[in-house]
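Q: Given only this backbone (238 positions), what sequence would you predict?
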């Protein structure tokens, strides 16, 4: 079967940079968070001043958190000024059509039914899952700063001193923070699987698009006003 493809610029540079910085900071936060919650019993005869590994872990955790905070601010800004593929409209369900598209994606991802998503950027399920991820990140910031509020004099985390009272104490805040971390682990596993799955069976450059910004779009399926005028790269034989 012959597939006529168009090469479409989907992911702008700020989106790609935010994606990779977010990925690296979340992985760093998970690893350091696990070590902070369950520190390794490292025995050493070195002077305490020469063995500050736990302090380094804690510093890395805070550094990754502030990097993630900056990335989230930039990404939210770009959701309003970027192209249509980066828009907040692609992430938040606003009508029944969006939910129907989520259902079609679920049929393909869970039951492995072949079909087209009628989209170029995020499919409906992916977009909605990223919105949920954003809400979880906000929850992590609230609980993280809530735990840190008693140990700092800086105004930013100190302004979250109310969090412990809201959630019923320090222990509850820590448990919410810890359990939410495992939701991130599940998200990463599912995300990697689906990206590789769609990259393999759709062959549209799903993985490489987050490096160079371009996807390959089937003309027969996506010959609509949003892609008309884009460059036709070549005919590909499956």
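A: Predicted residues:
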């Amino acid at each position: 079967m012959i597939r006529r493809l168009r090469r479409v610029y989907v992911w702008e540079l700020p989106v790609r940079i935010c994606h990779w910085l977010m990925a690296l900071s979340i992985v760093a936060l998970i690893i350091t968070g696990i070590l902070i919650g369950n520190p390794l019993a490292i025995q050493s005869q070195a002077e305490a001043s020469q063995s500050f590994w736990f302090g380094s872990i804690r510093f890395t955790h805070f550094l990754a958190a502030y990097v993630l905070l900056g990335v989230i601010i930039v990404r939210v800004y770009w959701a309003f000024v970027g192209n249509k593929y980066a828009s907040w409209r692609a992430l938040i369900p606003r009508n029944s059509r969006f939910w129907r598209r989520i259902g079609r994606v679920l049929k393909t991802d869970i039951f492995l039914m072949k079909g087209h998503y009628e989209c170029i950027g995020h499919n409906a399920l992916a977009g909605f899952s990223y919105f949920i991820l954003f809400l979880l990140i906000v929850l992590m910031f609230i609980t993280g700063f809530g735990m840190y509020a008693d140990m700092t004099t800086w105004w930013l985390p100190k302004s979250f001193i109310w969090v412990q009272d809201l959630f019923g104490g320090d222990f509850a805040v820590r448990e919410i923070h810890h359990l939410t971390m495992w939701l991130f682990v599940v998200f990463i596993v599912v995300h990697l699987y689906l990206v590789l799955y769609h990259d393999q069976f759709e062959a549209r450059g799903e993985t490489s698009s987050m490096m160079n910004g371009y996807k390959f779009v089937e003309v027969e399926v996506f010959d609509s006003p949003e892609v008309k005028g884009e460059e036709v790269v070549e005919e590909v034989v499956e």
